[in-house]
Amino acid sequence: MRFKDWKNWYRSLHWPFKVFIWLILTRPLVDGFYFLKEVSPLASPLYITGVISFLLSLFCILNFKKHFFNPIDIAYKFYMTALVVALIMLITRFNFEMITLEVTFKTLNAALLFFIARRLIRNLKDVDGVLQTFLYSSILVAGLILVEIWIKPFKTISSRGLERLEGAFADVLNYSIYLVMTVLIACFFYLRKNIAFSKTRRQYLLLIILVFSVVALTRINHVATLAIFLGLLALFMLFIFRTGVLQATLFISVSFLVLQFFASDIIESNVLPLLKTDLEVYSGERERSQAFHGRVGRWELLWEKFSSEPLIGQILGMPYSMTAYSSQITGGSHNDFLRILFLTGFVGLIFYLFLLFQIFLQINKFNTAYQFLLLGALSIMLLYSISTLPTMYMPLMNIISVIYAMACLPEHVAKSSS
Q: Which of 349, 344, 338 shows the shortest CA–CA distance to 301?
């Protein structure tokens, strides 16, 4: 939609949903002041927006009804029940210690976003409006990356012999999230029909975003993000073939020509150093535990610890049985599936996987572009979950929750034009 149409859509929303839109728009700016949380919670925009988001979730749950029912609602309630009970057990077992309260608030806040999105998304126009909002918010992130590349980096770290840009954010995943979600949304709008912008303008926009993303990837140097970027391109080409062989052939030809000029240098200088350790593990030069930048060894140790927990801790989660707080139920696991397993047990992990399966089952009721959007979102969550913790990142879950809520739309709405 044009900016004028986006403004009209925004004005049509109830005030709680307008607040949600502003939370998405201002998130890059808020994340840039993450360091203020070390000064005081009252001085931290992160904590302030976190409280606003939490209260907004509760307000929407209490004051707005869902527009229609979907099996995803039941699956999400099962997962939320396991999560909430485990978090309550965590904070009560450790006498409301600050670390457990912070973990509880951060984990619960991201999960509650679905309940806002579930009440906001009434039709496909609402989905388009939120996605366009995210693109507007990404402009600031793109500007930061350009400043870091052309002028001077704000903050860098060294990983696997390469320098990573982190900008004004807490870690590199913030840049990564905006990059892959912008690519997903740009490809989605390219596939959309009955849209205000011409095909030519969307082609130019997509080309600019893809070229910019490749340049940014060479400075971010994040393996999971690179894998997701390539996966999204492969998925996009598959959907392009479904819409027309000529378009697909043209897209592949242009991609091939670009790769001819840049691929060999990028692979040699940016990709191979990232994969060096894993290639050495595969060839037998290193221990298996050193795969995934040493994460496999960590996962094995954490799994051994989890396996030694009493049966109730394995079934319902470690908060039911552990005697000392462990970071493996938060960021220490570097794997979201394991984190959910450790926190909520096999019961919670099964509920979470069942939720993702229920969302996947909704794909066929949508038109091509929305099928791509849903599949792309699930792919991002699954791939990031292998080595990071996507369900704990608010910028990502703001949009993923909206796409999950889109999956709840009834078929007659899902098939209609936005």
A: 338
**Helix-, strand-, coil-residue percentages of the chain, each rounded to 5:** 80, 0, 20
**Helical segments of 66-123, H only:** 71-93, 98-120
Give the C-alpha separation, 105 to 400, whole Å: 19
Backbone dihedral angles phi then psi of residue 164, each to the nearest 5 degrees: -110, 135
* Residue tagged 């993702």 (tokens): 356
The number of residues in the chain equals 418
Token pair recorded at residue 222: 């994040």
Q: What whole-number distance in Å separates Cα of residue 210 and Cα of residue 259?
A: 12
For residue 52, how many other CB atoms are within 10 A of its CB? 14
pTM comes to 0.91
| Token reading at 236 | 């996009």
Sequence-ordered list of residues with C-beta below 8 angstroms from that of 274, at least 6 positions apart, any chain: 160, 162, 221, 223, 226
Distance between CA atoms of 176 and 5, rounded to whole angstroms?
29
Helices (H), 159-198: 172-191
Q: Are 72 and 404 in contact (CB under 8 A)?
A: yes
The mean pLDDT value for 330-355 works out to 92
What average pLDDT score do residues 266-287 get?
65
Q: Which residues does 38 contact at the CB level (< 8 Å), separation at least 6? A: none
- HSE-CB at 264 with a 13 A cutoff on CA atoms is 3
**Count of CB atoms within 10 A of residue 66's CB?**
14
How far is it, in rounded angstroms, from Cα 42 to Cα 379?
37
SS3 assignment for 285-349 = CCCHHHCCCCHHHHHHHHHHHHHCCCHHHHHHCHHHCCCCCCHHHCHHHCCHHHHHHHHHHHHHH
Which range among 276-280, 284-288, 326-330, 400-404 shows the weakest confidence by mean pLDDT?
276-280
